[in-house]
Amino acid sequence: MLEGAVGVASRDSSRAREFAERHEIPKSYGSYRELAADPDVDIVYVGIINPEHLKVALLMLAAGRNVLCEKPLAMNLHEVQQLVGAARDKNLFLMEGLWTRFFPVSKAIRALLKENSVGEIKIVKAEFGMHMMETPRLVEKELGVDEAVTIVLKYPRKRMAMITVSMATQLTNQATICGTKGTITVPGYMWCPTSLVVNGKVQEFPLPPPSQPLNFTNSTGLRYEADQVRQCLQKGLKECPELPLAESELIMSILDEARRQLGVVYAQDSLKQERLLIV
Asked: How many separate domains does the chain show?
């Protein structure tokens, strides 16, 4: 049985029921509204397709449910701000599901940077790419996914970050942080890392063994994110100190600007303009 899971919802009640039976979850719901109305639910994990995040997360918040919403939190900054405002109005917990943030490797990197172990950071590089063009939900533009892109971020004191993603080709899938005194490298699968190379020295951070077959690489690492959320709720926090809502807003503002420069427009962008015209 999934620890603490009290129910699962789907627009297809048979799929929800089958999933609940397979994982020994007590309840299943044939709609998200049914789940939102259940008083036994303390927090809802919203893991549906990106364009539906806003609508379903707002539904949960309106019903008084805390929310952990899968990345991206929404489709643009305006939508993110809607969610943040709704959570604060209801005095509820809200967090974006950036699971990488909570891996032991990520915590080790933050400690190394705080200790100035590699000096002043000058360049950060990250690659994420694999062959996924045969996956229908990833090649539909309306779902908010692009085939390939490189983003270059420039910071004061001649510092830069370069991020490349692709669904059409295999990339190194590693991240490198280059400082004036050394280098930190996160080898392959940098989004769910289990090792770290600091100035040539390897550090291992093995994951707990899975209790059942996995759908994705190292997905037992989701437990770190779930545990962080549990701790926040136990402390009565409304946002996570390690991933505050202001950071989700900042990330989305950067993505919005990148799309603007690339000329990529989502349907949700035009909806925002329509709202402004109505007001």
From this structure: 2
